[in-house]
Amino acid sequence: MAKRVSIEEFYNSSQNRIPEGLKTGIGHFNVFKLDEFAGPKPKPMPFNRRDYFKISLVSGKSRVHYADKTVPVDKHVLVFSNPQIPYNWEQLDEQLTGFFCVFTETFFHQYGNLLGYPVFQPGGQPVFQLTDDEVNSFAPIFQRMFTEISSDYAYKYDSLRNLVFELIHNAMKLQPANSVSHLHSNASERIASLFHELLERQFPIENPNQRMGLRTPSDFADQLSIHINHLNRALKESGEKSTSALIADRVVQEAKILIRHTNWNISEIGFALGFEETAHFSNFFKKHTGLSPLNFRKQEIV
Fold first, then answer.
1. Domain HTH araC/xylS-type spans what residues (predicted)?
2. Which long-range contacts (CB under 8 A, 24 or more apart) does 197-201 make?
3. Which residue of 10, 87, 173, 250 has the fewest C-beta atoms within 10 A of its own C-beta?
4. Strands of the 76-81 sheet, one edge to the other
């Protein structure tokens, strides 16, 4: 997997220039028409993580690859990308149309926690397939972004933040009500939130020398200064899987990413994910996927 792409590298590769004021410390926002970037037979986008957020509204046949998942798109799709999850696009139609906006986390400093929304969470839903009616409700939001960013309005960036939130909330309204994370209002939910924060803090694994420090339910309970039974109960009361299952799911997801998108050998991947023995990692992976790590890699190559 390629190294993480910075916002500066995005501009250098796409426009051969870096906008003035990009490093002002107040964050960065910009909006683009996809047609200017995705022409006929474009070069494939590398599968990697970016240091910036991106929201894309795309019409046309394509495939979206993110984390360990692939989503085929026949008509329209809205995709929320964040620095924690690697992704890329595979263009199938000769021409894709639409819009996308990019922004840094500092652009929303003191304006809300973007990673608290399900569309930007590793276990959330970042990809929304849209009908013709739905795409016609999202496209005007991007059009308003173009109007705002080119205006002389003194508070235009506040207005642009509101438009980003409008995209987020309108997308989340497309989900069933019971699939949307709610605010953490009691002790169990706060513990569950802290557990997930500790779990995600260990990712992404970006080199073979990096290693998970918290690997077992006891590790997390000790870090949170609570009994393991208290942690298990809190996750259960919050409607979650068991502690062990949540850890295993996230390790499997990262393992798939590393097997599929790096040239590291299986022992290096297993070690980075906290396994002392390659055989233990192979058995764990096969138990959860039905394939050995090597067979999973061969399957992806084919």
1. 189-299
2. 198/223, 198/224, 199/246, 199/247, 199/250, 200/84, 200/122, 200/250
3. 173
4. 29-33, 97-103, 53-59, 76-81, 127-130
178-196 burial, b at 16+ Cβ within 10 Å, e below that, comes to: eeebeeeeeebbebbbbbb
Residues 97-152 pLDDT 10s: 999 999 988 898 878 778 778 888 766 789 999 999 999 999 999 999 999 999 99
Give the Cα separation of 54 and 52 in Å (integer): 7
Is the pTM higher than 0.85? The answer reads no
Domains of the chain: 7-179 (2.60.120.280), 187-301 (1.10.10.60)
Residue 29 — pLDDT band, cuts 50, 70, 90?
very high
Helix (H) or strand (E) holding 127: strand 127-130
